[in-house]
Amino acid sequence: MSVPNGDPIRHASRAPYDASRWLWRPRPRQDARFRLICFPFAGGGPRVFQGWDRFLAPDVEFMGVRLPARDSRFGEVAIEDWDELVERVASALAPSLDRPFALYGHSFGARLAFQLAEHVQGMPNSQLQLLALSGCSPRHRGFFQPGLGEMPKPAFFSRLGELGGMPPEALEEPAFLALIEPALRADIRLSEAWHDLAADRVDVPIVAFAGTRDTLAPPPQMREWADATRRNFVFHELPGDHFFVRDHASAVLAAIDHDLHRQQAAPAPPSVAPISN
Fold this sequence. Notes:
Number of strands: 7
Structural class: alpha/beta
Strand order of the largest sheet: 1-3-2-4-5-6-7
Distance between the termini: 21 Å
Order of helices and strands: EEEHEHEHHEHEH
Number of helices: 6
Strand content: 5-15%
Helix content: 25-40%
């Protein structure tokens, strides 16, 4: 699903395809048994996960996904079409999916992780073991602020701040806001469009995390991710607002690490017949 043209950034040319531009690997581990692939919140780059690798077991390699128009890719055009984004991310990740792996995403990143899970589970010999999500209500809930992506700049950032969708300290840095605005708007528009996509269940266990004071994805709504999987579902609630993961990275990663190893050790579950709508 694409978004109509309007902003100058949408008319920029695409950068040549290079899989390495899409991935941040702070500590490459070629002998790792598992990989954890993480997707940041709207407008963010993979370095928002700085230091996360140290909370993982030695046999798990951490990888962060770097989308266009952020981090080292500020000169590139943001992608506002779900099919294109998923295809390009999947192509970049393909060489890294040669062993059991988990996907984790927060807020917009959770939407992208879910879409990618739908995509890769249909690939031959997929080794997706776990889908971890935080800060994002299920698709049927709808986007928390329709039309947000089209608001003029002052109202756009003001409303994001009021909703708790941006860290307060970021709103006090005009130069930083100008830098991230193209990617942030692109991700917000994708988020709005995501709730209109056809819903389906994934054939992989889901672990969901919620902040006790998160008003954008409150705990009761995060529990509803149980209906998005044909496999096991586990829910964790931690103190904090929408960005609770910044203060609880170790707890989040400990739970993911535990579930990832458990899934690999457990016998393969029986097949489940597709659920008809």
